[in-house]
Amino acid sequence: MMRNRTQWTWFGLGVLCALAVSLAFVACRQKPTEQRGAVAEAAIATYVPPGDQDEYYLFYSGGHSGQVFVAGIPSMRHIATIPVFSPYPSTGYGYDEESKKMLGEFTWGDVHHPALSKTNGDYDGRWLFVNDNANARIARIDLRDFKTKQIFGPIPNVSGNHGCSFVTNNTEYVLIATRFSVPLPLGTYASIEDYASKYRGVVGAVAVDPETGQMSLGWELLTPPFNWDLGSCGKGPSEDWAFWSCYNSERATGKLEVTASQKDRDYVIAVNWKAAEQAVKEGKYKIIGGAKVIDPKEVKGLAYLIPAAKSPHGVDVSPDGNYIVASGKLQEITTVFSFEKILKAIENKDFTGEEDGIPVLNYDSVKEAEVNVGLGPLHTQFDDKGFAYTSLFVESAIAKWRLGGDWAVVDKIPITYNIGHLCIPGGDTMHPDGKYVIALNKLSHGKHLSVGPSQPECSQLIDITGEKMKLLYDAFTEPEPHYAQAIRADKLHPIEVYPKEESKNPNAIWDVNQAGVTRRGNHVIVKMTAVRSSFAPTKIEVNQGDRVTIHLTNIEQTTDELHGFAICQYNINVVVDPGETKTIEFVANKPGVFPYYCTNFCSALHQEMQGYLLVKPR
Amino acid sequence: MEKWLDKANIFFDLPLTLNSRILILVAVVVLLPAYYFPLWNMTFYSNQYPDGLKLHIYAYKLEGGKTPQRDDLREINELNHYIGMRPLLESDFSEFKWIPFGIGALILLALRAMVIGKMSNLVDVFVLFSYFGLFSLWSFYYRLYTYGHNLAPDAAIKVKPFTPPLIGKEQIANFTVYSWPGLASYSLVLFAILLFVAIVMSARPAEE
Question: What is the ipTM of this complex?
Answer without folding.
Answer: 0.81
